[in-house]
Amino acid sequence: MSTLPHGGLGRRIAYYRSVVRPKMTQKRLADVACVSLGTIRKIERGERGVTDSTLEAIADALGVDPSRLRSDRGPAHTAVHDALPALSAVIAAYDVPDDRPIRPLHELHAAVAEAVRWRLAAQYTRIVRKVPKLLGELARAYHQAAPHEQRELAALLVSAYRSADAVAYKFGARDLSARLVELMRWAVAEADDPLLASSVAYVRTETFFAARAHTSGLRALQLALDAAPAPDTPLQAAMRGALHMRAAVIAGRARDASAAWAHLADARALADQVSEGVYYGTAFGPDSVRIHEVSLAVSLGDEHVGRALAIGHAWEPPEGLPAERRSGFYIELARAQLWSGRTDHAFESLKAARRIAPQHTREHPWVREDAATLRRLKRADSESLTNFAEWCAAT
Predict the structure, then answer these.
(1) Where a domain ends, among 163, 192, 221?
(2) Does 239 reside within a domain?
(3) Rounded distance, CA 240 to CA 270, Å?
(4) Is residue 202 situated within a structural domain?
(5) pLDDT score recorded for residue 73
(6) Domain limits at 163?
(7) Spatial CB neighbours of 275, under 8 Å, sequence gap ≥ 6
């Protein structure tokens, strides 16, 4: 188990505990993090290092991402890339799993639900540490289960594969991501759940984004819409709406403005029928549609950018939305602001994205591009911009 160097880690923990969370004593932090009080005191004084698991427990107690407590942002990036071969190995053996123990079904449900929460919160280091073993265990459970249990386990595999795919896709392992998407498509056929199939079609769009095959991706989503159940219940409406939301963005990338705005209008009409929430692992509702309106306006560019700016001026995503989605809003808004010459606003939006979901922000290619552009445009500006550009490896 790796141990983080002392550095300024203790000072940062003390800062978040006493300034950001001013009512949290060392004793309270120790209790919530399930760490001894003596350990917390030694960490804050810089007298001992911190293991990854202890850092995660402390970060959870403070309500921050672990990467915000590190002195060097590199370890999180390296940890993910170092773990990708293990993920590749476990999915290569999806149909010939080993014979290790298997937890009861209710415990597997809880483990998958936790992995989904990590994905929505953009906690990628946790996913790569835990999900590969979970995928192996789920594969064993599926192949050993009685036929009446296999559908349920296949559905769990879909959700777990999706969490793993979030890491592969965000960290640029596009071949691995495509393989995970294909495994989702295999598992969802075994699950025999039309709404779960809609969620897989939503995720599959990543492969078309990566290949810049936007027109093909739009066709695939239209086929998924044709196959999706009618929106007779809130859940059905949410899943159909999510497909329209996704279709709007990829139509925008294909430069088909009329189709894009039509799909967004359909998504908005369906969002009005449901509460904002997470449906089959996908956030959907009025707020999510508004965020996608910004994304669509940026995709289309030109005269549409003003629409993104107007939303960003009058509205901000509520904290109840998943962190990955909220940070994505500010990343898209920053690009619109940069294109419009509002460099200070663009930098503030990038910093907001970083505060919400550091790992997601750092790995987003637009962030690196826009931070590099800001650095060139504002050569004599503050040290904070230089630090930000170095943090996200902008060149």
Answers:
(1) 192
(2) yes
(3) 8
(4) no
(5) 45
(6) 73-192
(7) 234, 285
